[in-house]
Structure of NADP-dependent oxidoreductase domain-containing protein:
Amino acid sequence: MPIPEYFALQDNRMPRIGFGTWQAADDVLEKAVESALVAGYRHFDSARAYENEAALGRALRRWIDGDPAKRKELFVVTKLPPSGNRPDLVPEYFEGSFNDLGLDYLDLYLMHTPFAFEHVPGDLHPKNPDGTMKVDHTTDMIGVWKALLKLKETGRVRHVGVSNVNEEQLRRLCAVEKPECLQIEMHLLCQQKAMISVAKELGIPVVAYSPLGSKALTDALAAKNGRVYPDLLKLPVVVKIAEAHKRTPAQVLLRHLLQSGAAAIPKSTNPTRIKQNISIWDFELTDEEMNALCALDKGEDGRICDFSFFPGMEKHPEFPFKKQ
Ligand code: NAP
């Protein structure tokens, strides 16, 4: 059965394949965004913490070329960085993103993490002399969420949501007002079955980040922690299914996420792969193939982005990934 290419939001729609922009240098990103627009991407995922919003904004503005109808086609997302996680700082951090992107409005603004760094002007990732993060233990996640909701009143952002929260935090946020989007790590080895079912119950669309297994991050983490991160694109089950459909492993991974009920925001700076990652609407995984892929889930053990690259962060009272 065909699956919808968009998630419906109030007066808006979010394309279920978006373009990731993490770990892309400005000049590379500008070219990649141009390729992505030609390939048909209209959903772009950014963050203050990626420090490349200005490059994304330049490429998008060139494409929009002053035409409000073209702006309306886009769905542009960015995120409040952990150093902005205090209610009084939200407007200032939003302003920075808003100005760098240079658009008349943003579609979605996310709280990037429930935990917080200290606010150190000019340093989005402040560290202590011993290399641990400057953790802000005083953060008020609910106060920050209310400040995000207030941003909507300015008309500069149409929707607000959250990222990297756990179920308990999500329910706490919902008691104030339901986030309009939940962005979480989600891929073959970390299928987020519990969060998908909670989000479904609450009526919140889920966007899968690191959908292809985030090779750059796994390489960096493995060099530090010695853990072996399987390459999702080379898993025999994935390769076999890709061959059966005459598709690539990446297309199978993305299709699996879509058929599992999520949107996905793969990142690539290679024009061929950029095109490949959005060309996934004309084939379908069978129930048998879905079952074989779903069986590879490792749950919490499959998580890659555990924020261990922010030493000391796990001590924050809102750190989301404590093992149960
Ligand atoms: P990802 O999309 O899972 O993987 C990106 C890697 O896969 C890159 O090394 C890319 O290399 C490669 N790749 C892309 N398409 C491919 C294909 N068709 N075949 C083979 N390799 C392919 O990783 P990610 O960047 O971590 O996640 C995607 C986006 O999610 C990010 O860019 C960011 O926007 C968002 N994100 C959000 C959070 C959060 O905390 N909310 C955290 C992480 C990521 P090439 O560029 O060379 O193709």
Q: What stands out?
A: The chain has a mean pLDDT of 96. DSSP finds twelve helices and ten strands in the chain. The two ends are 37 Å apart (CA to CA). The first strand starts at residue 6 and ends at 9.
